[in-house]
Design a protein that fits this description.
- By secondary structure, this protein is α/β, with parallel strands linked by helices.
- The chain has 11 helices and 12 strands.
- It is 39% helix and 12% strand.
- The strands form 4 sheets. The protein has a 4-stranded mixed beta sheet, sandwiched between helices. The chain has a 3-stranded parallel beta sheet with strand order 3-2-4, covered by helices on one side. The protein has a 3-stranded antiparallel beta sheet with strand order 7-6-10, with no helix packed on it.
- The longest helix has 32 residues.
- Bound molecules: pyridoxal-5'-phosphate (PLP).
Length: 373
Amino acid sequence: MENVTPIPVYQDQTHPILVTEPYLPSIQKYMKYVEQAFVNQRITNGGPLLQELTDRLKKLLGVKYLLIVNNGTVALQIAYKIKGIKNVISTPFTFPATLTSLMWSNIEINLCDIDKQTWNLCPDNTRNALTDLTIDGLVPVNIFGMPCDLDKFEMIRKEFGIPIIYDSAQALLSKYKGKSIYNYGDIHCISFHATKLFHSVEGGALVFKSKDEFEHATKLINFGIEETGQVFTPGINAKMSELHAAMGLCILDELPRLIENREESVFWYKHYLKDLVELQVASYECYVPPTYMSVKFATEEQLLATVDALKTEEIMARRYFYPANHKFIKSDSLHVLATNNQVTDKILCLPLMHDLSKQQIAKICRVIARAIK
Ligand SMILES: *Cc1c(COP(=O)(O)O)cnc(C)c1O
């Protein structure tokens, strides 16, 4: 028998193009950080790598109270627990984790309609619903990194005295009217999942306004154990390991370049598609980090034709968030969702990752132009 080392067949770089691909640093670089964990003899329970990642992220985001956890979903659940909320208003247009995490925490969900330009929870609809509901929290989502109308939500927060927990899982580094979104609301929850702009394989964080809440949460993520060793309240295990922090540190080193590459891709997409589709926009000034390339077609037929045409070219676009999330929510909690129902079956996310070429984007846009003719 011949004893030949098999040579792997690498796929042609251009085929297939997935909707996204996690960025992987060089293994040597990752091993350098992992080696530190071995030298330190620390692999979890708040080690030096996690501390370094926390410090660097605090600086990057310009925040004081940042608590890193093991994923974005658990970040949301900790935020709900801290605020002790029981009955919230949230958005129908989001990744299922926003709503499933609420249900998992036995919180009643009321869904209000979205804004037709930003596709985020509409503050005016929220305000109207608040006058005839007993609500003790709002969970808006900054979808695709687009900030909600944060000033309007801030007015609601003051007027009704209810806390706002932002699901900012997709909104690392987003800005609203020139300011970081973390200046608004009570708590922001971020995801560092492999498919997000910045990742630590799995991971997430909470950003707090209140020092007390930050300290409370710090204990909650470690079973609720206090310095004395006593459990003050039943907590959970939401700690990030040193091996995950190591990946986060690798990616953080390269984040400016990754963002730059993705921003260039978004630029070309918008350039080629501006007359063919609708884009997510806001009536206020904001910065949307290049995490997703979402487009809205005039009709669902156009969307379906595009998905098919792209698939024949081995290009995978994806409908976010389809089928509609609210199918698993009690129907009496749904308010009028007219905009949501009109908009969300026409939204598609196109491939966006760190190393998409201008040629690939041009090809994708040509396929779309042909498909919707
Ligand atoms: C990714 C995401 C989550 C969940 O974060 P994980 O880190 O995957 O648990 C929650 N909400 C939204 C909007 C997300 O995009």
